[in-house]
Fold:
Amino acid sequence: MPTIRDVASLAGVAPITASRVINHSGYVSDDLRQRVFEAADQLGYVPNTLARSLRSKKSRTLALVLTDITNPFWTTVARGVEDTASDAGFSVFFCNTDELESKQARYLEILAQKRVDGVLLVPTTSDNQPVLYLKQQNIDVVILDRRIPGNNVDIIRCDSEEAAYQLIVRLRKLGHRRIFLLSGPVGVSSADDRVSGYLRGLQDPDQDILPVNILRGEFTLESGYQMTCTALSQNPCPTALFASNNFIAIGALKALQDADVPVPEEMSVVAFDDLPGAIVVDPFLTVAVQPAYEMGRLATLRLIERLSGLHEDQFEEIVLPVQITDRKSTRSIG
Amino acid sequence: MPTIRDVASLAGVAPITASRVINHSGYVSDDLRQRVFEAADQLGYVPNTLARSLRSKKSRTLALVLTDITNPFWTTVARGVEDTASDAGFSVFFCNTDELESKQARYLEILAQKRVDGVLLVPTTSDNQPVLYLKQQNIDVVILDRRIPGNNVDIIRCDSEEAAYQLIVRLRKLGHRRIFLLSGPVGVSSADDRVSGYLRGLQDPDQDILPVNILRGEFTLESGYQMTCTALSQNPCPTALFASNNFIAIGALKALQDADVPVPEEMSVVAFDDLPGAIVVDPFLTVAVQPAYEMGRLATLRLIERLSGLHEDQFEEIVLPVQITDRKSTRSIG
DNA sequence: CTGTTAGCGCGTTCAT
DNA sequence: ATGAACGCGCTAACAG
Structure:
């Protein structure tokens, strides 16, 4: 492993001169520049960014800490992050928390030790503590997808409340009055916001107030399945289901299939999160589509800007619109 | 940012003693150990792994270089890698090559500069050069999913040839004689192996020899769509399609749908790669299922073992079995 | 069991 | 325009 010293001595210059050539910093005569490049080439010199980072206190490394990369929504966000980071010369660590605070804490500690420049965080809890920790470690943060208290951090998320409201409006227009919400975990803001939007939809002052039926679970297939079984056992039975993420939606559809309840004939279903076009033949669910790739891209851009010294103490909460895509999983009722 | 020096002086010991305590290396008396821990706690000491790596020449960092994390097959592999690496105390960089050699080369260079300990590589071309490059940089490698020439590297892959053969056997038993293969790119071993298995299936010496119909494309939805259109325009028209990966399969199904060709009534379809149970309600395609998570896990385990000095110059090609899952996309004819 | 010395590879600082 | 000296934070090698 040749070092910059080796390159320098082969080129007959001081190490710092070689450094200047390789980093395109400072003035070096064309003659020396040429000789340094040739020496580097000849030796197959590969700069050691570990040493560089130790000196410069910048690692050009980011981390994406999310719940589960296996969820196509997060996969798409991740792709947006990686593309954007890579274009700007940053590498990205990926960390799956599985919605577990213990895992999140462990990862943040490791990332601090690795001296990453910035973290894109999907927080497991609605808590400012992780942000404080990272800041104290001199690591910049952008929060993705979820609100947290405090005004000390950038947040990029979607308008879950409004989108949920719109979904309910859709169902009401079709005549539905018994709409069950299959929700995500309490304390996760995206889940809570969808509850709020659902409630606003039911209690619209211009219309009748409809009965509230909220089931609380996890953002998983199993939970979606369970909640749907519970919903089906109620009397009176719902005519429509609102699944608050993609995994819950799949679980719900499986449960309905197992219970021989045809969709949309006997049950309308709407959901949050689309499945990527590349993995579904005949898109069927009426969904609220979050711009996943764009979220990842914007968050990364913002983070990198912040690393470059922009924004300083100016923190923004960027709320992206959600698009409702009507498909074939709902129908109007008597 | 307190350093180990700060910890040491607060504890009243030499830096190396503090180092020994923090790294659980060497002997330190309980008394001093206690004092060092207390000092570290009090200062909120966070070890700088950059410095540590510079000294020790080990970064406890791996990289997964694959084609596209957006493909659920690769997402699952990635999850297997991350879980396994994380358990062993390694962090993972993710890199998407999009099957482009130029991107792969750029990533490998960056990873060399970052001094990762090891790389899990899904090579874009059937070429030993990337392996040689990494070895020369003193970076260990495990090849995932694809064969490459040379016996100088561990390979973890599935038996694509046999699985493709089995798929064709299935179709032949159902009476199909005009089976078109919608293949992946030439030179990608997993694609080539599926071609070989297809050919063996058609030319089984115990049976009639069937006509060979191979379309070559990319592992993408668009390509699958195109190839299917081409297949449908042939005379005589195929009775069965073999899609050689999941994206091609989805593209094929879309094309068939657009052409009003019902599956399986007028066209049987089999494919490589399953879609995760969590994102599909009613599994429909008869597929060859590769153990994606296990592939990621095994490859990572092997890589970490190698880093620990095991195996030395012993290289293995581990070929995992593929499971055929019969579902509803085929039917017997005439 | 503990400490001293030295140096990993690089770039900032200051000098020439 | 080029270079010398130094130190980033840590641990290997060697002493005692």
Summary: Chain B has a mean pLDDT of 96. Residues 3-5, 15-16, 19-20, 23, 25, 47-56 of chain B lie near DNA strand D (CB under 10 Å from a C1').
